[in-house]
Amino acid sequence: MAIKAVLQMGDARLLERAKEVSDFNTPALKKLLKDMRDTMQALDGAGLAAPQIGIDLRVVIFGIAENPRYPDAEAVPQTVLINPIITPLSEGVEDGWEGCLSVKGMRGLVPRYKAIRYNGFDAMGKPIDRTVSGFHARVVQHECDHLDGILYPMRIKDMRNFGFTAVLFPGEDLQDD
Ligand code: NI
User: Fold this and answer.
1) Which residues are CB-neighbours of 8 under 8 A, at least 6 positions away?
2) How many Cβ atoms sit within 10 Å of the Cβ of residue 48?
3) Which residue segments constitute the domains of the chain, with CATH numbers given?
4) Nearest Cα to 36, choosing from 101, 112, 103, 108?
5) Fewer Cβ atoms within 10 A, N terminus or C terminus of the chain?
6) Residue 143 CB neighbours (<10 A)
């Protein structure tokens, strides 16, 4: 197990555009993915981007079976997504509450495309091509934003819909991150 410290909002490394991965199926990439998985599981996150643990590469992981942080969310398959490209499939956006392991203890209401296609590669360099909607689409948009230095508070339209989880959702026993 290698649980890494997750950088918190305010750290300039979270604001940079991460670099493309050029070599797949390498020991270094496998170690990065193991560290990311260990860290995400330990913190009970829905997803994690490499820049959040200080690694400047276009790598995200995500997946939810049933997660107490997102009690109403549908399951999302455990996925490694490298060098992703997102294509919006809907004009419309919908608002949904998001949290982030880099913005501990808070939630914000964030507009995201309802449906997207995403392309990229898995750890072995095999292409991924999926069309998704709803919470799956939201998670992918959130995680891929990290690769462009965008944190979800930067996308909130009305800052009155940004606050501490324990205050916004009292009694819902949502985890404090
Ligand atoms: Ni995040």
Assistant:
1) 102, 103, 104
2) 26
3) 12-168 (3.90.45.10)
4) 101
5) N
6) 24
Is the overall model pTM greater than 0.90, yes or no?
Answer: yes
How far does the centroid of ligand 1 lie from the alpha carbon of residue 125, in Å? 24
Residue 143 is a catalytic residue: yes
pLDDT one digit per residue (tens) for the chain, 177 residues: 799 999 999 999 999 999 999 999 999 999 999 999 999 999 989 999 999 999 999 999 999 986 566 666 789 999 999 999 999 998 889 999 999 999 999 999 999 999 999 999 999 999 999 999 999 999 999 999 999 999 999 999 999 999 999 999 998 766 655
Tokens of 64: 């939810």
